[in-house]
Design brief:
By secondary structure, this protein is of the alpha+beta class. The protein is built from three helices and seven strands; from the N terminus they run βααββββββα.
Length: 149
Amino acid sequence: MTLSGKRVAQVEIKAKGDVFHDLWKANPHHIPNLSPTLVQNCQTHEGELGTVGSVLHWNYFHDGKDCVAKTKILTIDEEKKSIDFQLVDGDFLKIYKSFYVNLHVDTKGSKHVVTWTVEYEKLSPNVPDPDTFMEFYKRLTKDIETNHL
């Protein structure tokens, strides 16, 4: 059984992809207002909001329990509407050695598709793949679309 893996989830949204990308890049502190059942808090922990190297502190609800995470922004690509995050602290690092998330918004004509890609390494073979977290991202995307976009 392999310890490393990759998961991808895609969600089509009706709103412009630029708006979704900008929310995650420059205004993630608004996400708890848009999806309060999933995300309770987002604060800048280090650095300047919307810049590479900044660290965000999250309080969220996953798999029936309150969780915390700190994510570091590794890259922001305005042209591709893509942001890479690394999980640097929190509940998930109790079971995963590494956890990277890419958020990409693709626009083709009038269609906008949000793609969440997670690359991870488990601490042991007994750790489940993060499939429930991919469902979390899909629900979060739909909540944001419903309440903001």
